[in-house]
What does this fold into?
Amino acid sequence: MKIIKVLLMLLCSLSIFSQGESDSFIKGADVSMLKQLEDNGSKFYDENNKELDCVEILKNNGVNYIRIRTWVNPTDEKGILLGGGNNDKETTIYLVEKAKKMGLKVLLDFHYSDFWADPAKQFKPKDWANLTGKELEDTLYNYTKDLLLELKNKGISPDMVQIGNELNGGMVWPNGKTWVQGNEKIGGYEIFSNLLKAGIKATKETTPDAKIMIHLADGGDNELYRRVFDEITKRGVEFDIIGLSFYPYWHGTFNDLQKNLNDISKRYNKDVIVVEIAYAYTLNDGDGFNNIFGANEEITGGHNASVESQMTVIRKVMSTLANVPNNRGKGFFYWEPDWIPKKNVGWKAGEGNGWENQAMFDFKGKALPSLKVFNEEPKKTLEKSTVQKVNDIEIKTYINEDLKLPTEIDGFMANGAIEKVAIKWDKVDSKKLKKANDFTVNGQVVDSNIKVKAKINVSSAKNFIDDNSFESGDIWKNTKWILEDKKNSLQIEKNKANVFDGAVSISYWKDSNFEFKIYQKITGLENGTYKLQVWSMGEKGGKTLNLFAKLKDNELKKNIVDTGWSKWNKFEITNIEVNNGELIIGVEGNCNSGDWGKLDNFELIKTK
It folds into this structure.
């Protein structure tokens, strides 16, 4: 009997321990828009159509932590609220108190701005406009301390404090900015670190039990995280947690995220939390204001817009965090599940909501089935889904060229993911490749009865450039492209909004001055006259950009001048006389910090 009692006690203790471990994993939600939604009449309903407080519905579905942003003075020069949640001091206190009354923990997100702060903008609060040096640091310290003291006096201190928001390039610009644009004067990492220390000092003095987070965006970019955290740690900035924004349609793959989390948690000996993530459940628009997430984001995000995809993305981020070594992956926050479409509740006053199709309530405020995923436990290994459909493809080729049918294409899975699936094609009649024509090749998904068609266009004008539209998706390994790019400014772009032809382009950008060259050496050309062209779009900026064709004894150039986003222009060099069978073609850029653009659809065609 004694042995049985001991075993039962052991099992109970293990069960309690396991439950404690489960409860410690953060499954959070940012509800910073909630008060403005409520003030304008928004109502929320559970899955049974019962009207409840939004936070109560979230809690009932497994949310255990709430994130709330706070702005210094979100009004214009006339004192009119700017919108976007109107996250002033009173709103902050209201939301923190609501979460605490529900028994939830709170992450307080200091933006140190009057309005949205992110990698593209970290505007100094208007009341701090003329402050510099120690006076600016003291003001930030006092502002942080005053708000935290008021929360403490009300018995609702936050459990975690975020010092700044998406600090890729610093905070409180230009004083705490870390990258130069044009001729501006910035404070660099020294002032940035001092401002962080001021906020951290105020937090430790008023709320010593709160964990302190430093937060960047672009969660798949390991180089960014090493660069920023190397700089602030060597300057003695003390913190507990690294926060990451990771939107899979913007910030890379889950594999990129996993590698970054594994590296930075070990490199800096810190816990990591994905503090912003979201995905669309529909492509429909609830308020007539263009949504952030559209058909292009489905492609780059690797999942279709569906309730299943919302659940799959959250399962993936939980699994990714569960696989961070030494239990360093502490949880995630879904960004604005409450932000349903409602008049007067947009990004800013006078604008609509571009996020409502990524909320976790439908347009009328009813909880989506995807909310139930918060009740699930993180699993290190996820079940593999089955393919539901594939789309037909189109291929361009040339007379007498070998036809290269892809061995894999995108498959749309039952869980909403878009994954590569193997295809077996019917045999191609070689006679159809000996003349200009169009024909179809039938195929089938391997280990499935799902059919697919490849529409083939055979053209007489051969383009001699390998992977001319970057459709391989990997210009670093599998093509003849050669890159000279010391600052890693070149990236593959899979957003159809930034593509001229096909599904892929190449983009360039960097937050410091940079140079690049992308080119091919083409051999075995017949002697004769050729034409070279490329399509380009972007901001003009201060960059110098040239299309070039380099012969043995001569180099021809065409200056590329961009005219704005989505304004594609064709640039070409004609009458290229090849007489030794070789030609080097490409684009070279000498760019200022912040210059950006996209290149697509190179062509080299023999004209005579």
Remarks:
- The chain has a mean pLDDT of 92.
